[in-house]
Write a structure and sequence with these properties.
Blueprint: H1 3-26, H2 31-53, H3 79-86, H4 108-144, E1 146-148, H5 152-163, E2 170-174, E3 181-183, E4 189-193, H6 194-199, H7 202-217, H8 220-233, H9 239-242, H10 244-261, H11 266-282, H12 300-308, H13 310-313, H14 320-341, H15 348-354, E5 363-369, E6 378-385, E7 392-396, E8 402-406, E9 415-422, E10 425-426, E11 428-433, E12 441-443, E13 445-455, E14 466-473, E15 484-486, H16 489-492, E16 496-498, E17 504-511, E18 515-520, E19 534-536, E20 542-544, E21 548-549, E22 554-562, E23 565-566, E24 571-576, E25 588-592, E26 598-604, E27 607-614, E28 628-633, E29 638-639, E30 644-646, E31 650-657, E32 668-672, E33 684-687, E34 693-698, E35 701-707, E36 717-721, E37 726-728, E38 731-732
Parallel strand pairs: 2-4, 5-12, 13-20, 13-21, 22-29, 22-30, 31-37, 31-38
Antiparallel strand pairs: 1-2, 3-4, 5-8, 6-7, 6-9, 9-11, 10-13, 13-17, 14-15, 14-16, 14-18, 18-19, 22-23, 22-26, 24-25, 24-27, 27-28, 31-34, 32-33, 32-35, 35-36
Helix pairs in contact: 1-2, 1-14, 2-10, 2-14, 5-7, 7-10, 10-12
Length: 735
């Protein structure tokens, strides 16, 4: 659970508990209903906690709460994933669980979460220790008591247990027992003071015994322990602890009712309870209530008054209508607070789907904000991305500290980011599209210098090679600001540096507190901008990167044909084989065929790849191709003959509808198969239109089709596709 969902749970549980405490005040003469209210509320608080862990909530809540988002994830930053977002309507997005990067010391939000978590753990440990001490004292008291196996008291307990249909508890009598009480969850014990037993008549002892057995019949010990454990684990919700008093009072009143129903005089019973309370006050060695033993001291004066007016106060039970009414109220409060306050967690698949909506448009001005308020000088521009790996950068002038933006100057790109480089600051950026509302400010980031060293495969310094920043990501990813940008060749020229004779480099003008991937721009070596080479930028003037070790590049070569003719301009992509035995390296690569249909995919790291025809520009609507699965390549090796044959294949189509049968638009339907093997995370997909229909062209054979968003884990199914035939698969979303 993150901080945002914890905040939502806190608000929900507070509303529920406040309603419960108010209800208990108005239900003074109905102890059974009060007890039901308290217990169901405790369950409701725990249920809301588990619900908050999986909360998606409302996109536009009545009372919005600023979401606290997950941190920058390593897999999101990968170029192959960025490419997949671009053409998700054709050959797909990467659909795989994100691996969250471990937070660094520079991340204030991570530090806040860690601090709060440590405080919560410390509180749990302290309260658990108090509970453990209580059980230890109870164990010691048990060892000092003698077991009663016969006699009038034993008979009274047996009679009461039989009447209330409970298992006969073990009767323990001891001089250190201050007052009668019961304890135990799996095996119940009834503790009786030795001196009190000798001084009381059989009728009085029978009444008190009946009271304690009534606790067992009402499962009070189990409920008390449940509430105690909930209070320990959820101790930040202080109102939960306030339920203890009304719940205990109602429980005692219900047990008093059992005694009075047996015909025991109310005046004598009240007098007996007063004597027991006085004896308890005079004894210091008592058992804490926290262990589950039910005390008789809760709202004692109110209990005595209720006993004395027995005919007026203890005649109410729990009707079915009351049970249904309160259960409905608990559900209503949970749903109402979700509607009022819940905001959706930032979800990668949902976020990527949002990036595929209508094209960007609109004109507005964005002010560049500096800490000193002085007008900035430098350059800025719009980075259009998400369509393919060929992102475009449009330079813009800075006038009076602001940039005039026109989002429609480029078409077909689902994402637009404002990038600025101002003298004295690090390169700064903020996503302008898609966004729920126009962005009018960009806070400039303090600058840091990245220094490091590059070594050749033989361990010697790599002199005169160029270190180039490829991607920069913010620490957090939120729906409001896109966190990762891939730099175009124009932007890379600003954040690069050549190594000296010792293989050392220094890149200036980078943003503090962010993360980046950098590479060595040399065809002889494999790419370095992967998960293993993400570098956190310190909140300092200088950041020292880990030493970068270069490796000889591997490569694939092949040809793409259609009807025996060369296919020019076809993009070929490669991604690691997820079942190769060493997944998680984020291996990737891509290339484009030349006029002869040939491609050379270089700068690969050694590993096992799935090589796939990345059919863009609506090419996948007419042809498809079988992928190469599990191609192993070693360092320095060139694997030739990786050819592709573009074929018509077969078509998979259908509709996605809601519970009422209406078509659902904007649902991503993903498919794995010969074109996109399930051993990689590259999913071929298509988005449903307004009529809820989708269409996918795939090679013949076994394919697995499912809903990437809008469905659940049970939506997938395996189908057989035949060449030149259409297979229909419809989906119905349950909710």
């Amino acid at each position: 659970m993150n901080l945002h969902n914890g905040l939502v749970w806190g608000i929900q549980s507070t509303f529920l508990l406040m309603l419960t405490l108010v209800a208990c005040r108005f239900l003074g003469r109905a102890p059974a209903v009060r007890l039901l209210v308290c217990r169901s509320s405790a369950i409701g608080v725990v249920a809301l906690l588990f619900g908050a862990m999986w909360l998606d909530g409302r996109v536009t809540p009545i009372v919005p709460i600023e979401p606290i988002a997950p941190y920058f994830t390593a897999t999101v930053a990968q170029p192959n994933q960025d490419r997949s977002v671009a053409h998700a309507s054709s050959t797909g997005a990467f659909h795989q669980p994100s691996s969250v990067h471990q937070p660094s010391d520079e991340q204030p939000l991570v530090q806040l979460e860690s601090t709060l978590y440590a405080i919560w753990v410390a509180g749990v440990l302290v309260l658990a220790a108090i509970l453990a001490v209580g059980y230890l004292r109870l164990w010691r008291l048990t060892r000092k008591c003698s077991v009663l196996l016969d006699g009038p008291i034993f008979d009274a307990v047996a009679t009461a247990s039989s009447e209330m249909n409970v298992k006969l508890p073990r009767i323990l009598v001891g001089v250190d027992v201050a007052t009668p009480f019961v304890s135990g969850v799996a095996k119940a014990n009834l503790f009786l003071p030795a001196g009190w037993v000798k001084s009381q008549d059989e009728q009085t002892i029978g009444a008190i015994v009946r009271h304690e057995v009534a606790h067992l019949a009402g499962k009070d010990l189990q409920w008390s322990l449940f509430c105690r454990l909930a209070t320990i684990l959820l101790w930040p919700q202080l109102l939960l602890g306030l339920l203890k008093r009304p719940a205990a009072t109602a429980s005692e009143e219900m047990c008093d009712r059992k005694v009075l129903e047996s015909g025991y005089p109310p005046e004598k019973y009240a007098s007996t309870l007063v004597d027991l309370r006085d004896a308890l006050k005079s004894r210091r060695r008592t058992i804490p209530v926290g262990i589950g033993a039910v005390a008789i001291r809760s709202s004692f004066g109110k209990r005595i008054e209720t006993i004395m007016s027995h005919s007026e106060g203890l005649v109410h039970g729990v009707s079915k209508k009351s049970l249904i009414a309160w259960g409905g109220a608990v559900i209503l409060v949970g749903c109402a607070t979700t509607v009022l306050f819940a905001t959706p967690r930032w979800n990668r698949s949902a976020g990527f789907a949002a990036m595929q909506q209508r094209p960007p448009s609109g004109r507005f001005s964005v002010r560049l904000v500096t800490p000193d308020g002085k007008p900035p000088t430098g350059w800025a521009g719009l980075l259009f991305s998400g369509k393919s790996r060929d992102d475009e950068y449009v330079e813009l002038p800075i006038r009076d500290g602001s940039v005039d933006v026109d989002l429609s100057v480029r078409s077909g790109y689902p994402r637009v980011t404002l990038v600025a480089k101002v003298s004295g600051f690090g390169i700064s950026f903020r996503r302008l599209w898609p966004a729920e509302k126009p962005i009018h400010e960009l806070m400039l980031a303090p600058a840091t210098r990245l220094t490091g060293q590059v070594l050749l495969p033989d361990g010697k310094p790599a002199a005169r090679v160029r270190a180039v920043v490829k991607m920069i990501g913010t620490v957090r990813m939120t729906p409001e600001s896109y966190s990762v940008i891939r730099l175009t060749s124009e932007l890379q020229k600003v954040v690069c540096a050549w190594t000296d004779a010792n293989g050392k480099f220094a890149i200036d003008g980078l943003p503090q507190g962010c993360r980046l991937t950098y590479d060595i721009d040399d065809e002889r070596f494999a790419v370095c901008d992967d998960v293993d080479h993400q570098t956190p930028l310190a909140n300092l003037a200088t950041t020292i990167a880990d030493t970068l070790h270069l490796h000889p590049a591997a490569s694939f070569e092949g040809r793409v044909t259609i009807d025996g003719k060369s296919a020019k301009g076809v993009r070929i992509g490669a991604q690691e084989h997820m079942q190769s035995g060493d997944p998680g390296k984020a291996l990737w690569g891509d290339a484009v065929t030349d006029a002869s249909g040939r491609f050379h995919m270089g700068r690969l790291n050694a590993g096992v790849y799935n090589v796939i025809a990345d059919l863009q520009d609506n090419l996948d609507s007419t042809v498809t191709a079988v992928a190469h699965e599990g191609l192993a390549v070693a360092e320095g090796q060139t694997k030739k003959g990786v050819d592709f044959f573009l074929i018509p294949g077969g078509v998979v189509t259908g509709t996605v509808s809601g519970p009422n049968g209406s078509p659902l638009a904007g649902i991503l339907v993903g498919i794995y198969g010969p074109a996109h093997p399930r051993t990689s995370a590259w999913v071929q997909n298509n988005e449903t239109g307004k009529d809820g229909r989708y269409k996918l062209r795939v090679p013949p054979g076994e394919n697995y089709i499912y809903l990437q968003n809008g469905g659940d884990s049970h939506t997938g199914q395996t189908i057989q596709v035949r060449a030149s035939e259409t297979t229909t698969v419809d989906f119905k979303v349950a909710n």
